[in-house]
Amino acid sequence: MALGTTTALQAQEVDYSSLEISWMQAEVKMKERCLQLTNTLASSNMGDLYLEGFYSTRTKKDLAVGFDLTFVDVTADKVIELIPAVDSLMPMLKTFKGMLDMEMAATSQMDTTMSLVMPSVNGVIEIGGKNLSLHENPTVDKLADILMFKNRKTWSVDSLSVHGIIKDNSLEIFPFVIRIDRYTLALDGLQHFDTNFKYHLSVLRSPIPVRFGINLRGNFDNWKWDLGKSKYRNSKVPSFADQIEGMRLGLINSIHGVFSTGADGVLRQNLMNSEAV
């Protein structure tokens, strides 16, 4: 590959860590210690994936990455296996069983082990799925006790659609609706990367003929709750989808222009966009 020129890449039987790619294609460009991947499609053991991204190695200790990564029909455990940082972002994700679609668009510094430096991550994440189930774990069990779920082992979830923004060493989860057991719940909150969290559940439909709210705070080993006023009145919760999509598209445009602005320029612009959401 000539430096500074775009090369079409096709490959088969590519292994990266636990990711086994049976087929992929991409457009690759290298220039000034920066690798750019665009229009990347792949079929793998973790589902189909799509990628736009860059990897910059300005020095051996100054590494940066920007990416828009989409998985289609993948399980939560496979996502976490490939991107361990997702477990810090959404610890409850692994309790969902079934096929998910996930998109994460972010910039970050990287360490020499090729791991994301979590305090530097800025971006957005979207997770959706249908016909899922939520399996018991200590946190879910405690919540089931509070709400007196009828089924005590496994709960079916017709659909899930979660949007969030990653900044300031935390993930802000925008309001979304989930129907589980005999309940319709609206949930939002803040998940810090040190495992502490603060969530609010608005109970919109339940065996009790009144709306009420539940506030959760602490960490998954030790958390408390109290009753409060329901923040949301019905299932029509505020949507931040347009802001999330705007930030994602802005990052993709920056990735395509990384050789004009430089990696620092992409990181700065993405930080500004995240602060504006």
Structure notes:
By secondary structure, this protein is α+β, with helices and mostly antiparallel strands. Helix content is 21%, strand content 53%. The protein has five helices and 14 strands. Strands 1, 2, 3, 4, 5, 6, 7, 8, 9, 10, 11, 12, 13 and 14 form a 14-stranded antiparallel beta sheet that branches. β12 and β13 form a beta hairpin. α4 packs antiparallel against α5. The longest helix has 19 residues. The two termini are 39 Å apart. The mean pLDDT is 89.
Class by alpha and beta content: alpha+beta
The Rg value, from CA coordinates, equals 20 Å
Number of strands: 14
Give the overall silhouette.
elongated
Low-confidence stretches: none
Percentage beta strand: over 45%
Total of helices: 5
Q: How is the main sheet built?
A: 14 strands, antiparallel
Mean pLDDT figure? 89
Helix content: 10-25%
Whole-Å distance between the termini?
A: 39 Å
* N-to-C series of helices and strands: EEEEEHHEEEHEEEEEEHH
Quaternary structure: single chain
Topology of this structure?
Elements: E1 6-16, E2 19-31, E3 34-44, E4 47-59, E5 62-74, H1 76-82, H2 85-89, E6 96-97, E7 100-110, E8 122-135, H3 138-147, E9 154-167, E10 170-180, E11 183-192, E12 197-205, E13 212-219, E14 222-228, H4 241-256, H5 258-276
Antiparallel strand pairs: 1-2, 2-3, 3-4, 4-5, 5-7, 6-8, 7-8, 8-9, 9-10, 10-11, 11-12, 12-13, 13-14
Structure described in brief:
The chain has 277 residues and is of the alpha+beta class. Helix content is 21%, strand content 53%.
